[in-house]
Design the sequence.
């Protein structure tokens, strides 16, 4: 399984139209499954994030080539600044992303890793998932990048930012989170709160 995150930057008031255009473009794909579309709410404003799943590298590559050769990739040619397409592999011990109502509020966290940090990060996460289940049940996916800087990106879904803060606080206090050794392998990190677009598998 492979995943692609596409980030489309546009004006803060332009995300509804950008979302419609992106969804129409994706629906013409010859491979892959559209899982979710989100618009940023806290963090960098005016961003649309598209998550797609692919069965294998070949399917992902064919869609990447379609985007690169398109005169209007993701419907973004008009009124949109450059798009960013990123390829990921899932953490191997996590289940595939499935459609589910998470509550509409999502956190996108990216950890840029120190060199050689991924093996230890994977081990720490594998050991922490089950003990912290009340929190990790809100994990949509965690995945490591196949291109660019070494990094992992994890997506979490909640009813609200308040629910997210409560769960994180409880699990930190209990020593169940973060995964052992994880923070020591992070060179830098970013976080964004986004709201889901309706009518898709993940909301």
Sequence:
């Amino acid at each position: 399984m492979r995943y692609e995150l596409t980030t489309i930057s546009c004006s803060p008031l332009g995300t509804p139209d950008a979302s419609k255009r992106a969804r129409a473009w994706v629906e013409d794909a010859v491979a892959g499954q559209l899982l979710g579309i989100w618009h940023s709410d806290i963090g960098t404003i005016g961003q649309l994030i598209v998550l797609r799943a692919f069965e294998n590298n070949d399917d992902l590559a064919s869609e990447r080539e379609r985007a690169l050769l398109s005169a209007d990739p993701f419907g973004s040619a008009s009124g949109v600044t450059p798009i960013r397409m990123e390829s990921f592999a899932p953490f191997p011990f996590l289940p595939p992303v499935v459609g589910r109502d998470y509550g509409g509020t999502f956190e996108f966290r990216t950890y840029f890793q120190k060199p050689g940090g991924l093996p230890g990060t994977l081990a720490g996460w594998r050991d922490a998932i089950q003990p912290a289940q009340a929190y990790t049940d809100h994990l949509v996916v965690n995945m490591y990048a196949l291109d660019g800087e070494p990094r992992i990106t994890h997506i979490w879904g909640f009813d609200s930012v308040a629910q997210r803060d409560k769960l994180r606080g409880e699990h930190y206090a209990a020593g169940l989170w973060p995964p052992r050794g994880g923070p020591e392998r992070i060179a830098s990190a970013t976080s964004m709160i986004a709201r889901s677009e309706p009518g898709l598998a993940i909301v």
